[in-house]
Specification:
With 205 residues, the chain is an all-alpha fold. It has helices at 2-18, 22-34, 36-58, 61-67, 69-95, 101-104, 110-119, 122-135, 142-167, 170-178, 180-203. The protein is globular. The chain starts with a helix and ends with a helix.
């Protein structure tokens, strides 16, 4: 019964976390631009931010956040602006044929940047609420909720770490260097679309 409750939660969270989105795109790009170490640090920051929203969801505060229009609007605007900033950074890199992305971001604190990305992501708390509801009913014990939340945090950390390790392989990084400007331009567009979508959903409420 214990594993029957946790397994759906873990699988649902794995699908949501590993699916391509701003966090996955960002950790992949940071790894390609900066290397394995900074990519792993960025992934760790993402995982910490994801864990924060997990604690919010597990303690029931996620329901309050979902019901607070003002809080959601503010979070969506902050998240949208941050994604637009990431889009601008990628666009600058794509437009510069000589300067590398590493030089553009030489002073980056990747752990904090990853943390900020997921802290400003309102979809993270919705993902947690959906995952926890897959196998945990209203009568779930505190221990079961705590174990499920801890497992999901570990899944998030592992997922981001796998992406960072995969995109730090020499062949992939060499291929990125050959088409860096095109890749950065595409990523800039993806970030811009995601950021504008968040802001539009905030102002259209």
């Amino acid at each position: 019964m214990f594993f029957e409750a946790i397994l759906p939660v873990a699988l649902a969270f794995l699908v949501v976390t590993a699916s391509p989105g701003p966090a996955i795109i960002a950790v992949s790009l940071v790894t390609l631009q900066q290397g394995r170490k900074d990519g792993l640090l960025f992934g760790l920051g993402l995982a910490v931010g994801l864990g924060f929203w997990g604690l919010i969801a597990a303690t029931g505060l996620g329901v309050l956040l979902q019901s607070s229009a003002q809080a959601l609007i503010a979070l969506k605007i902050i998240g949208g602006l941050y994604l637009l900033w990431l889009a601008w950074q990628s666009f600058r890199s794509s437009m510069n044929p000589r300067q590398t992305a590493a030089k553009l971001s030489s002073k980056g604190r990747w752990l904090w940047k990853g943390l900020l990305l997921n802290l400003s992501n309102p979809k993270a708390v919705f993902a947690w609420m959906a995952a926890l509801s897959m196998g945990l009913g209203n009568d779930a014990s505190g221990a079961l909720i705590a174990i499920s939340t801890t497992l999901c945090i570990a899944i998030g950390l592992l997922t981001y770490g796998v992406y960072a390790l995969a995109f730090s392989l020499p062949g992939i990084m060499e291929g990125y260097r050959r088409i860096r400007r095109s890749v950065d331009a595409v990523v800039a567009g993806l970030f811009a679309v995601a950021g504008l979508g968040l802001i539009r959903s905030a102002v259209s409420r």
